[in-house]
Amino acid sequence: MDSIKWCRYIVNIGYICVALMAFAHVAWYLGARDYLVNPPDIYLKYFIIAPTIGTCALNLLADLLVRSARVPIQAKEYLCSFILVIYSFYLIMAHEIAVVLLCTFMLSIFISAIFSKVKITRWVFLASMLSLMLFGVKMYVTGNMDSRMVMQIFITCLMFVGSYLMAKMLIQHYHDNFAAITSSHEEAAKNELAFLQAQIKPHFLYNAINTMVSFCYTDSERAASLLINFSKYLRLVFDVDHKSMLVSLEREIELIKAYVAIEKARFGGQISIEYTIEPELLSMEIPSFCLQPLVENAIKHGLCKKDAGGTVLISAQKSEGTIIIKISDTGIGMGAEQLNKLKNSESSKEGVGFFNVSRRVKSWQDAQLDIQSTEGGGTTVTITLSDIIA
């Protein structure tokens, strides 16, 4: 719950408390004058009129300040906390069993925070009322029921009602905030997907189209095959579930194959791809765009910078209760300094593709990602996760 909503909520609770306390004293004044300890005029003046006017004025002032845009949020929070303290002092001074009354408020807050269900709150409320009635019966049977005790029980019943209403409002606020958080999370997932989709390099699209155009003049069948792979690549990139952000391993492999087919048309025998994937793992769901960027990095930064080219090996295997996915290449690799910088980077400046994959994998069900590389000996990226996911 944000600060502004919390402050307005406290102000509304204040109005409820004022109304309940005023109603209780008025009802006692009208219906039980013979049991009043103080003279009726004193009771009317100091127990009804003065407290009601004072608490209403305080609550109205707090309401105006909470609604004002000029008052800092921290000042509003202190003000609302001060209101709760004032009401607590009033109850302690006015009623001998104020501890019971204050506990009802704490109980309602506890129930709403732990259970967040109106039905359970209602049963606790009814049980509290029943225990209070049994206490009244006990006092009556033992002959200890006097006018003050009747008044205390009556006030406590009303405060139980107020506590129930407060818990109900708290639960409603909780559900509203939870719905807002869920909506915000879904929106963030959509934005993240849009960002990942936007990472398709314009140069890749430009080069792919140029390659297909060039084959149209020399090899029409090859051009048609490339166009099919290019269409499949775009479909797999943009057709992703916005809610789960997960795809099957088989689908991610299809995306890689479509991408590699286009790149091989440009670089020929400089690129070679090998797959070692256990068939039962193909249906396993993984975060979308977590393998293709690694293959793209291996080709762009590893193989294409090596005169003789090389091979990218993609493997997925089960091993001792874990699933290990590896993207290895025989490219130029990288030195220890560059590798350390890539491992410890906290932004995408050191590599957009690897940074995005690392962030997505590490936030997914305790999965781990590691990268090892030697200069001139290639690079290996390893993703390790529990086999219960498969």
Automatic annotation (TrEMBL):
Q: Name one Pfam family in it.
A: HATPase_c
Q: Domain Histidine kinase: where?
A: 291-389
Keyword list (alphabetical) reads: Kinase, Membrane, Transferase, Transmembrane, Transmembrane helix, Two-component regulatory system
What residue intervals traverse the membrane?
A: 12-31, 43-66, 78-93, 99-116, 123-143, 149-167
Q: Where would one find coiled-coil regions in this protein?
A: none
Q: Would the keyword Kinase turn up in this protein's UniProt record?
A: yes
Any one GO MF annotation of this record: phosphorelay sensor kinase activity
Supply one GO CC term from the record. membrane
- InterPro entries the record matches: Bact_2-comp_sensor_kinase, HATPase_C_sf, HATPase_dom, His_kinase_dom, Sig_transdc_His_kin_internal
Could you name the domain of life of the organism this protein comes from?
Answer: Bacteria
What is this protein called in UniProt? Histidine kinase domain-containing protein
Q: Which organism is it from?
A: Desulfitobacterium hafniense (strain Y51)
